[in-house]
Amino acid sequence: MSGIPGSASTALLTDRYELTMVAAALADGTAERRCVFEVFARRLPEGRRYGVVAGTGRLLAALADFRFGAAELDQLAGVVDATTLDWLSRYRFRGDIDGYPEGELYFPGSPILTVTGTFADAVVLETLVLSVLNHDSAIASAAARMVTAAGNRPLIEMGSRRTHEISAVAAARAAYLAGFEATSNLEAGRHYGIPTAGTAAHAFVLLHDDECDAFRSQVAALGSKTTLLVDTYDIRRGIENAVAVAGTELDSIRIDSGDLGVMAQQAREQLDALGAINTRIVVSGDLDEYAIASLRAEPADHYGVGTSVVTGSGAPTAGMVYKLVEVDGRPVAKRSAAKRSRGGRKSALRRHKPTGTAIEEVVYPHATPPPIGPNDRVLSVPLVRGGEPVAGLPTLEQGRDRLRAALVSVPWEGLKLSQGEPAIPTVFEGA
Amino acid sequence: MSGIPGSASTALLTDRYELTMVAAALADGTAERRCVFEVFARRLPEGRRYGVVAGTGRLLAALADFRFGAAELDQLAGVVDATTLDWLSRYRFRGDIDGYPEGELYFPGSPILTVTGTFADAVVLETLVLSVLNHDSAIASAAARMVTAAGNRPLIEMGSRRTHEISAVAAARAAYLAGFEATSNLEAGRHYGIPTAGTAAHAFVLLHDDECDAFRSQVAALGSKTTLLVDTYDIRRGIENAVAVAGTELDSIRIDSGDLGVMAQQAREQLDALGAINTRIVVSGDLDEYAIASLRAEPADHYGVGTSVVTGSGAPTAGMVYKLVEVDGRPVAKRSAAKRSRGGRKSALRRHKPTGTAIEEVVYPHATPPPIGPNDRVLSVPLVRGGEPVAGLPTLEQGRDRLRAALVSVPWEGLKLSQGEPAIPTVFEGA
């Protein structure tokens, strides 16, 4: 489960300083101090109005494989001393983790994940925790905006080729969590059970002596319930050929270039005139949330999205940090004029109007919750207890449902694509 | 070598449509047509003046594991027919690959990689090839600008937490290729032999009852040849404490917040006044190539770079495409008004002045090279022959040297950080 070449361990997906800190803390006796680390984002990406938590499921899987075996310890012989190597050889996380479940919205300062344990137990997880959450949440946050922009029209994630080959699998998962319908990525299909989609590229048409040959071959192999790519040569001719070959029962055509709005209109008219009134139009090619929104009035039935979703549409990382907030019950914080660092373990709830519209995110000291009203919702759930994942953790499908419901609760302004403030304010009680 | 949870194969890191195309081509007899696919970038990221090829070494490793075993074939049972499953079960790439070696510069239209083989053999590699090259080249291209901006001052890559946990390993490799000195990522140290660096975070200081305790502990564990992080509370006091604890032989201090230029100046004065004249200053915190350049006049000795390098500093993907350019000796190309698609297999050379300064990138039809002058350099090298990597492929260190030499050849305007045109024009001969 590691995703590491030649290794079943995730333990070296870690910054060197986590381990040198453990070495020094083991030597001076502070390694066993009870600590609380908190993951939060100081701000949302420029102009974004909400973030979407994603990656928790992947994180818990990676945590199970966070073990220092012989291969890892060999590598660390020059990094830390023998005592530390011995400690690492017996390492397994023994603490607790609480956090916002996948698909939950977050805002600046939301305590997205809380890791409780000894200093040494908890500090070594910093890099892995942040890598997973920062990546997956960045993708899901961008993808959710695309899903909103698309209204009821389905989105297919097809960006594997635009990102690292393994990130691509996680990106497909995050996009699916956010409401995409399918992915082009076969490994995401295998590993996460996400529906996969895809039929043919321009290369397939170019391979053949003419476009009709290619279409005939594709229909013979995949049936008329396929998607024919019609823009290799001339789109008008391509649609003519597609319907001639596949008949009016052709499932869809795909247009991957040109002015997609104009092309979709012309294609719809032509398809209808040819009697292919149920043949759908898939558009792809440099789509982002803004381009998707601009196509809402056009007869595009499906969107294929690549680069923009897997790169977070301008915000490729969520900017979450993992901060020590409590040592042996004492709140701690780096002194900082510009950055808001609030010591002490926190929890959060979200207040809503009776109509269900969210009003504010309330972050409060863990031990002293504010009065909870009938329309308030506590946001953290237990994820790990004594090092073991709790039973009945939310599934990917449940995360998808959670986000769908959460987006309905966002004040309408918060769903706008334009740059703005966070959809709801974060209020720090007792701060 | 796959990097896939629970799998030794890279074969499902693939878009579904590659396999449905294979299925149709096997059925219609075109699967064995001799094809040439070419990887190139239509343009550089907005305003960039050059790109850096990276990932080839990783790609060849992943290619060796591109096999469809029982687990992969199980997953594909609903995707393609029995004939195709059988073909996939015997798949290994049998063709040839040529390309720009790692560390080479590229420009719009440069034929970065050329894959020659049967259609079926070559088309299934599209997703993997692009994922690896687009990711790694994006990072290396951004990192090279940072190296240039830093002059002779060393850079440490510390961005693992800002990107997917496995991409982080590849990002460290690409940054090292581009001239970074070290990485925080331990897996990159293990897998690629890249020097690793890192000592302590703010959490380590906060863990202790006071800053001096933390510094004493660190020096006891790591020696005075360490880097003490001095900005947890008050920087001036932190530096005082650091020198008091470690002595004037302290290797370095690190400043991770505030106005780094001002802080570096003040720190230098203070260190010198304390007699720590050889203690170096490491600065980190939201550095990108522009911030690095702006610190050139300041007494910062080392730069730690995170988010901006692992996310490609605004260009997280290189935008390379994998296009079918030749079928059975016949040039092919998608018809396109806006995109430059040139059919036919190509090669390239770079022309230089006698002084060594590059003049232009010449892309020519494979079989008809233009006259090659004494200052011209052919850019592609054989990478794979008959499915096997050729002997003596360049190492990562050689790629690093290659880039260093290539950057010296760039006209001085091409090294400017400001937005501009590609450093040299690409000339298409016989196009």
UniProtKB/TrEMBL annotation, chains A, B:
The top EC class is ligase
- Nicotinate/nicotinamide phosphoribosyltransferase domain residues are 156-345
GO cellular component terms, semicolon-separated? cytosol
Question: Its domain of life?
Answer: Bacteria
Q: Which GO terms describe its biological process?
A: NAD+ biosynthetic process via the salvage pathway
- Could you tell me the EC number(s) of this protein? 6.3.4.21
Q: Which reactions is this enzyme annotated as catalysing?
A: 5-phospho-alpha-D-ribose 1-diphosphate + nicotinate + ATP + H2O = nicotinate beta-D-ribonucleotide + ADP + phosphate + diphosphate
One function term, GO molecular function aspect: nicotinamide phosphoribosyltransferase activity
Family, according to the entry, reads as follows: Belongs to the NAPRTase family.
Q: What does this protein do?
A: Catalyzes the first step in the biosynthesis of NAD from nicotinic acid, the ATP-dependent synthesis of beta-nicotinate D-ribonucleotide from nicotinate and 5-phospho-D-ribose 1-phosphate.
Stated name of the protein: Nicotinate phosphoribosyltransferase
Q: Which species does this protein come from? A: Pseudonocardia asaccharolytica DSM 44247 = NBRC 16224
